[in-house]
Amino acid sequence: MPVYTRACLLLICAVLSGCAGFQPRIGMSVSQYKSECRATNWTNAKLVRAEGDVEVYYCDNVYIYSYFKNGRLVRVDQGRLPKQEIELNINKQKE
Q1: Which of 21, 40, 80, 83 has the highest CB neighbour count under 10 A?
Q2: In angstroms, rounded to a whole number, what is the distance separating the alpha carbons of residues 77 and 58?
């Protein structure tokens, strides 16, 4: 295989592996979330809501809302929920 073809294949593989996307993981810290959002999407995570010990962030270009309680990710959702439902769901997961 010519060197040029091999180099092109390596470049394509590198680009595709970098496009895997940001995958929030339950239990990750807010700082890990922000760091991975910035590394994957070249943008900063945005704080959408903060109330008590619950903070809700989203990472641009992903539009998946991430719910943190006491600095740890406890829920990932496609959209925002009413305040009462957020608290109910987080308390249910804790039990």
Answers
A1: 40
A2: 10
